[in-house]
UniProtKB/TrEMBL annotation:
One cellular component term from this protein's GO annotations in UniProt: plasma membrane
Membrane-spanning intervals of the chain: 12-27, 47-67, 79-105, 169-188, 230-248, 268-288, 300-321, 327-350, 362-385, 391-412
UniProt xrefs under InterPro entries: MFS (IPR011701), MFS_dom (IPR020846), MFS_Na/Anion_cotransporter (IPR050382), MFS_trans_sf (IPR036259), Sugar_P_transporter (IPR000849)
Keyword entries, A-Z: Cell membrane, Membrane, Transmembrane, Transmembrane helix
Family annotation (PANTHER family): FI19708P1-RELATED (PTHR11662:SF399), SOLUTE CARRIER FAMILY 17 (PTHR11662)
Protein name: Putative sulfoacetate transporter SauU
Keyword Repeat: no
Membrane topology: Multi-pass membrane protein
Location of this chain's protein in the cell: Cell membrane
Primary localisation category: membrane
Keyword Metal-binding in annotation: no
């Protein structure tokens, strides 16, 4: 019976629980967009007020990237992700009882706090649960579930709204989020040595050494080393995030206003690129891991997928701008988003590769680029549409940022890790100590003042 139970490895059970978290959290994130028109009608909100409700999520989300990641490094992902999921689950549930715009803004702000630190904390959770050769797949499959959550949110929320109203949708989703927290508490442990189910063989497969988790908690965060090693990854993530936010915010408007799709077809053609992204996320992680296993070259395995993904997205985005056929434009958009999402699992794997035990903080630094893009991209995109009267200019600028991201990705080096920097400093310290070791054997020289000598006065 025990042998049968171990057919499913413990790390894969934990990975499944994390996939569920990404799926639920993304539904909780985008459900407000679906319910927005109904909320506006019931509460009599203006367009500005509704926009304030939408944007309240983004600012704490960006701030909590580094904060949440650092907390997970210091206190462990189990405690931190439990608290964060309780915050966003309670905020989602309470939204169903909101009675004013101020309450809606406050609850969306709380949701941003809870979800802002969740993905960096989940990345830190993989540090001691995923071997190097499976990290790309782990990040790919989890983010595929996130994209799947975004794709099914409109029909899911609308189905609940049709039977009970928009408030019931938030109450139901809040309860589901809190139920996930209970499941996470039962299944997850910070390290394999704390898990009763895992076998010594699986621990060896992961490459975990006893005590690694405790030593990581006691280590001081090397902020300067992390910034030096992660700033380029953060910039690439900004370039990636710029176009992703365009898809998440302006795609329906583009298809309706620029390509002339009616409401009946809008939902289908909006979901099509997102579903292509689901496939791209999983494929990017799998391909990167396979390249590493075949070549043994980690930098090549990561950078090749980054360059191919962003290059493919750029290659399909440019003809989309000039395409005259609306259906062809949708196909180009879907292909562009497919390649764009190929890069996503690699971006989230790089904090694990480069920062190791500091992956929570590093993941937060990296995803800050995405958060900043979320603050700027939708606003700049809308400004350019308003002042040029066309979507071509903002899409062309997005293509230019993709090109910059491709160039920057070529210079990312996974061999220059934070732990390698620390080891180099330890060796240099040991060499310096050895160079002056002969002083330890010399007799100590004691300087004494003669008892009869009077002290000098400053005025003499």
């Amino acid at each position: 019976m025990k042998e049968h139970a171990q057919r499913v490895k413990t790390r894969h059970i934990i990975l499944a629980v994390m996939c569920l978290m990404y799926f639920i959290s993304y539904i909780d994130r985008v459900n407000i967009a679906v319910a927005g028109p109904l909320i506006r009608q019931e509460m009599g909100l203006s367009t500005v007020q509704l926009g304030l409700v939408f944007s309240a999520f983004a600012y704490p989300y960006a701030i909590m990237q580094i904060v949440g990641g650092w907390l997970s490094d210091k206190f462990g992902p189990k405690l931190v992700l439990t608290v964060l999921s309780l915050i966003w689950g309670a905020a989602t549930l309470a939204t169903g009882f909101a009675g004013s715009v101020a309450m809606l803004v406050g609850l969306r702000f709380a949701l941003g706090v809870g979800e802002g630190g969740a993905f960096p904390t989940a990345t830190r959770a993989f540090t001691y649960w995923m071997p190097v050769g499976e990290r790309g797949f782990a990040q790919g499959i989890t983010h595929s579930f996130a994209r799947l959550g975004g794709a099914i949110t409109p029909p899911l929320v609308l189905a609940v709204v049709a039977t009970g109203g928009w408030r019931d949708a938030f109450i139901l989703l809040g309860i589901v989020s809190l139920m996930w927290t209970a499941l996470y508490l039962r299944v997850f442990t910070n390290s394999p040595e704390q898990n009763r189910r895992i076998t010594p063989e699986e621990t060896a497969e992961i490459g975990y050494r006893k005590g690694d988790c405790d030593r990581a908690k006691r280590a001081a965060t090397p902020w300067r080393k992390l910034v030096r090693r992660m700033w380029l990854v953060t910039f690439v993530d900004f370039c990636y995030g710029w176009l992703l936010w365009v898809y998440l915010t302006w795609l329906p408007s583009y298809l309706k206003e620029s390509r002339g799709f009616d409401l009946k077809h809008l939902a289908l053609f909006t979901a099509l690129p997102l579903l292509a992204g689901v496939v791209g996320d999983t494929l990017g992680g799998v391909v990167s891991d396979r390249l590493f296993k075949w070549t043994g070259r980690l930098r090549f395995a990561r950078c090749a997928v980054l360059v191919t993904g962003m290059g493919g997205s750029l290659a399909f985005l440019l003809p989309m701008v000039s395409a005259s056929n609306p259906m062809l434009a949708v196909l180009f958009l879907s292909a562009s988003f497919f390649f764009l999402e190929i890069t996503n699992p690699v971006l989230w794997t790089l904090p694990l590769d480069i920062a190791g035990k500091y992956a929570g903080t590093a993941g937060g630094m990296m995803n800050t680029g995405f958060g900043i893009a979320g603050m700027i991209s939708p606003v700049v995109f809308g400004y350019l549409i308003e002042h040029t009267g066309s979507y071509n200019v903002p899409f062309t600028i997005s293509a230019g940022l993709l090109a910059l991201g491709i160039v920057a990705a070529l210079f990312i080096d996974t061999s220059r890790t934070v732990e390698a920097d620390e080891e180099r400093e330890r060796r240099m310290g040991a060499q310096e100590a050895g160079a002056f070791a002969f002083l330890d054997g010399m007799p100590a020289v004691r300087l004494e003042r003669h008892t009869l000598r009077r002290p000098l006065r400053w005025w003499r």
